[in-house]
Amino acid sequence: MSDASAEPDGRVRDSGQVRSPAPASAPAPAPTPAPVRVRLVKAGRTKIVYPAALLADDGTRLTVRAPWAADGVRDFGFTRFEPGDVFTEHYWRDRWYAVKEVRAGDGTLKGWYCDVTRPAVVTADAAGGPAEVTVEDLDLDLWVSADGRLVLRLDEDEFAASGLATSDPAAAGQAVRALDELAAGGRDGLLGLLGLLQG
After folding, report:
1. pLDDT digits (tens, 9 = 90+) for 120-157
2. Pairing mode of beta strands 35-42, 130-145
3. How confident is the model at residue 16 (pLDDT cuts 50, 70, 90)?
4. What percent of the chain has pLDDT over 90?
5. Could you give the CA distance from residue 103 to residue 88 in angstroms, rounded to a whole number?
6. Do 79 and 95 form a contact (C-beta atoms < 8 A)?
7. Cβ atoms < 10 Å from Cβ of 22
8. Which helix or strand (DSSP H or E) is residue 32 part of?
9. What are the helix (H) ranges across 38-168?
Protein backbone atom coordinates (compact mmCIF):
# COMPACT_ATOMS: atom_id res chain seq x y z
CA MET A 1 0.00 0.00 0.00
CA SER A 2 1.41 3.39 -0.93
CA ASP A 3 2.02 5.96 1.74
CA ALA A 4 1.16 8.77 -0.68
CA SER A 5 -1.78 10.99 0.28
CA ALA A 6 -3.41 14.04 -1.24
CA GLU A 7 -3.24 17.46 0.41
CA PRO A 8 -6.36 19.70 0.34
CA ASP A 9 -4.79 21.93 -2.34
CA GLY A 10 -4.24 18.99 -4.69
CA ARG A 11 -0.54 18.50 -3.97
CA VAL A 12 0.64 14.99 -3.18
CA ARG A 13 2.49 14.00 -0.02
CA ASP A 14 4.76 10.98 -0.51
CA SER A 15 7.19 9.67 2.10
CA GLY A 16 7.16 12.93 3.98
CA GLN A 17 7.75 15.11 0.91
CA VAL A 18 5.17 17.34 -0.74
CA ARG A 19 5.25 17.55 -4.51
CA SER A 20 2.99 19.40 -6.92
CA PRO A 21 0.99 17.41 -9.47
CA ALA A 22 2.39 17.26 -12.98
CA PRO A 23 1.26 20.28 -14.99
CA ALA A 24 -1.47 19.65 -17.52
CA SER A 25 -0.16 19.47 -21.04
CA ALA A 26 -0.70 22.69 -22.97
CA PRO A 27 -3.10 22.48 -25.90
CA ALA A 28 -1.42 22.13 -29.24
CA PRO A 29 -1.22 25.46 -31.09
CA ALA A 30 -3.72 25.90 -33.89
CA PRO A 31 -2.17 25.23 -37.29
CA THR A 32 -1.30 28.31 -39.29
CA PRO A 33 -3.60 28.62 -42.31
CA ALA A 34 -1.81 27.95 -45.57
CA PRO A 35 -1.29 30.96 -47.82
CA VAL A 36 -3.14 31.11 -51.12
CA ARG A 37 -3.46 33.78 -53.80
CA VAL A 38 -6.78 34.99 -55.15
CA ARG A 39 -6.78 36.21 -58.74
CA LEU A 40 -9.79 38.06 -60.12
CA VAL A 41 -9.92 38.42 -63.90
CA LYS A 42 -12.37 40.19 -66.16
CA ALA A 43 -12.58 40.06 -69.95
CA GLY A 44 -9.25 38.24 -70.07
CA ARG A 45 -7.39 40.76 -67.92
CA THR A 46 -6.26 40.40 -64.33
CA LYS A 47 -8.06 42.97 -62.19
CA ILE A 48 -6.37 42.19 -58.88
CA VAL A 49 -4.28 39.53 -57.16
CA TYR A 50 -4.15 39.42 -53.37
CA PRO A 51 -2.92 37.09 -50.63
CA ALA A 52 -5.34 35.16 -48.45
CA ALA A 53 -5.30 32.45 -45.81
CA LEU A 54 -6.82 29.10 -46.70
CA LEU A 55 -9.50 28.08 -44.19
CA ALA A 56 -11.01 25.02 -45.89
CA ASP A 57 -11.06 23.10 -49.15
CA ASP A 58 -13.28 20.05 -49.58
CA GLY A 59 -12.50 19.57 -53.26
CA THR A 60 -15.58 21.50 -54.40
CA ARG A 61 -15.74 24.57 -52.18
CA LEU A 62 -12.71 26.56 -51.11
CA THR A 63 -12.86 29.14 -48.30
CA VAL A 64 -10.24 31.82 -47.66
CA ARG A 65 -9.91 34.88 -45.43
CA ALA A 66 -8.30 38.09 -46.59
CA PRO A 67 -8.13 41.75 -45.62
CA TRP A 68 -9.60 44.41 -47.93
CA ALA A 69 -7.05 44.32 -50.73
CA ALA A 70 -7.68 47.52 -52.67
CA ASP A 71 -6.14 50.90 -51.94
CA GLY A 72 -8.13 53.26 -49.76
CA VAL A 73 -11.89 53.32 -49.27
CA ARG A 74 -14.55 52.26 -51.74
CA ASP A 75 -17.88 53.86 -50.93
CA PHE A 76 -20.81 52.19 -52.68
CA GLY A 77 -23.44 54.31 -50.98
CA PHE A 78 -25.08 51.30 -49.36
CA THR A 79 -21.83 50.26 -47.64
CA ARG A 80 -18.12 51.06 -47.53
CA PHE A 81 -15.17 48.74 -47.99
CA GLU A 82 -12.12 50.14 -46.26
CA PRO A 83 -8.75 49.24 -44.71
CA GLY A 84 -9.26 46.96 -41.75
CA ASP A 85 -12.23 45.14 -43.27
CA VAL A 86 -11.94 41.35 -43.35
CA PHE A 87 -13.49 39.16 -46.07
CA THR A 88 -14.30 35.48 -45.61
CA GLU A 89 -14.69 34.29 -49.19
CA HIS A 90 -16.33 31.10 -50.43
CA TYR A 91 -15.53 29.86 -53.94
CA TRP A 92 -16.90 26.83 -55.77
CA ARG A 93 -15.45 24.79 -58.57
CA ASP A 94 -18.96 23.95 -59.82
CA ARG A 95 -21.02 27.10 -59.15
CA TRP A 96 -21.25 30.39 -60.97
CA TYR A 97 -20.81 32.69 -57.99
CA ALA A 98 -18.68 33.48 -54.96
CA VAL A 99 -20.04 34.57 -51.56
CA LYS A 100 -18.01 36.97 -49.44
CA GLU A 101 -18.85 37.77 -45.84
CA VAL A 102 -17.64 41.28 -45.00
CA ARG A 103 -16.76 42.38 -41.48
CA ALA A 104 -15.30 45.60 -40.14
CA GLY A 105 -12.00 45.49 -38.30
CA ASP A 106 -13.83 45.27 -34.96
CA GLY A 107 -15.73 42.17 -36.12
CA THR A 108 -19.04 43.89 -36.88
CA LEU A 109 -20.81 42.19 -39.76
CA LYS A 110 -21.41 44.58 -42.67
CA GLY A 111 -23.10 42.09 -44.98
CA TRP A 112 -22.47 39.73 -47.88
CA TYR A 113 -21.10 40.67 -51.27
CA CYS A 114 -21.78 38.05 -53.92
CA ASP A 115 -19.88 38.00 -57.21
CA VAL A 116 -21.32 36.21 -60.22
CA THR A 117 -18.32 34.46 -61.78
CA ARG A 118 -17.36 31.45 -63.79
CA PRO A 119 -16.60 28.44 -61.56
CA ALA A 120 -13.32 28.86 -59.71
CA VAL A 121 -10.14 27.35 -61.12
CA VAL A 122 -7.73 26.23 -58.41
CA THR A 123 -4.03 25.74 -59.15
CA ALA A 124 -2.17 23.31 -56.90
CA ASP A 125 1.19 23.89 -55.26
CA ALA A 126 4.07 21.39 -55.23
CA ALA A 127 2.53 19.57 -52.26
CA GLY A 128 -0.84 19.26 -53.97
CA GLY A 129 -2.57 21.93 -51.89
CA PRO A 130 -4.21 24.99 -53.40
CA ALA A 131 -1.78 27.74 -54.36
CA GLU A 132 -4.05 30.06 -56.32
CA VAL A 133 -7.76 30.41 -56.96
CA THR A 134 -8.78 32.22 -60.15
CA VAL A 135 -12.27 33.49 -60.83
CA GLU A 136 -13.58 35.37 -63.84
CA ASP A 137 -15.91 38.23 -62.95
CA LEU A 138 -19.08 38.32 -65.05
CA ASP A 139 -20.15 41.82 -63.88
CA LEU A 140 -23.31 40.84 -62.00
CA ASP A 141 -23.19 41.25 -58.22
CA LEU A 142 -25.51 41.08 -55.24
CA TRP A 143 -25.31 42.86 -51.88
CA VAL A 144 -27.19 41.69 -48.80
CA SER A 145 -26.95 43.88 -45.70
CA ALA A 146 -26.23 42.37 -42.29
CA ASP A 147 -29.83 42.84 -41.16
CA GLY A 148 -31.18 41.39 -44.40
CA ARG A 149 -33.32 44.43 -45.15
CA LEU A 150 -31.33 45.46 -48.19
CA VAL A 151 -30.93 43.05 -51.10
CA LEU A 152 -29.47 44.81 -54.12
CA ARG A 153 -28.84 43.47 -57.61
CA LEU A 154 -25.82 45.34 -58.96
CA ASP A 155 -24.17 46.10 -62.31
CA GLU A 156 -26.88 44.66 -64.55
CA ASP A 157 -26.20 47.53 -66.96
CA GLU A 158 -22.51 46.58 -67.16
CA PHE A 159 -23.48 42.98 -67.78
CA ALA A 160 -25.77 43.98 -70.64
CA ALA A 161 -23.04 46.18 -72.12
CA SER A 162 -20.40 43.44 -71.88
CA GLY A 163 -21.81 41.58 -74.88
CA LEU A 164 -21.54 38.23 -73.10
CA ALA A 165 -25.08 37.32 -74.17
CA THR A 166 -23.84 37.41 -77.77
CA SER A 167 -20.27 36.14 -77.39
CA ASP A 168 -21.07 33.33 -74.93
CA PRO A 169 -24.84 32.91 -74.49
CA ALA A 170 -24.44 29.75 -72.40
CA ALA A 171 -22.25 31.57 -69.86
CA ALA A 172 -24.60 34.56 -69.88
CA GLY A 173 -27.51 32.26 -69.08
CA GLN A 174 -25.58 30.69 -66.20
CA ALA A 175 -24.72 34.15 -64.87
CA VAL A 176 -28.34 35.34 -64.88
CA ARG A 177 -29.52 32.13 -63.19
CA ALA A 178 -26.81 32.50 -60.54
CA LEU A 179 -27.88 36.06 -59.72
CA ASP A 180 -31.53 35.01 -59.59
CA GLU A 181 -30.67 32.15 -57.24
CA LEU A 182 -28.74 34.42 -54.89
CA ALA A 183 -31.32 37.21 -54.96
CA ALA A 184 -34.30 34.91 -54.40
CA GLY A 185 -32.90 33.73 -51.10
CA GLY A 186 -31.69 37.10 -49.87
CA ARG A 187 -30.45 37.04 -46.32
CA ASP A 188 -32.26 33.85 -45.32
CA GLY A 189 -30.96 32.05 -48.37
CA LEU A 190 -27.39 33.15 -47.72
CA LEU A 191 -27.59 32.26 -44.06
CA GLY A 192 -28.93 28.85 -45.00
CA LEU A 193 -26.13 28.41 -47.50
CA LEU A 194 -23.47 29.51 -45.03
CA GLY A 195 -25.01 27.31 -42.34
CA LEU A 196 -24.57 24.32 -44.60
CA LEU A 197 -20.99 25.37 -45.23
CA GLN A 198 -20.24 25.48 -41.52
CA GLY A 199 -22.11 22.27 -40.68
Report:
1. 999 988 777 779 999 999 999 999 998 888 889 999 99
2. parallel
3. low
4. 62
5. 8
6. no
7. 7
8. none
9. 156-162, 164-167
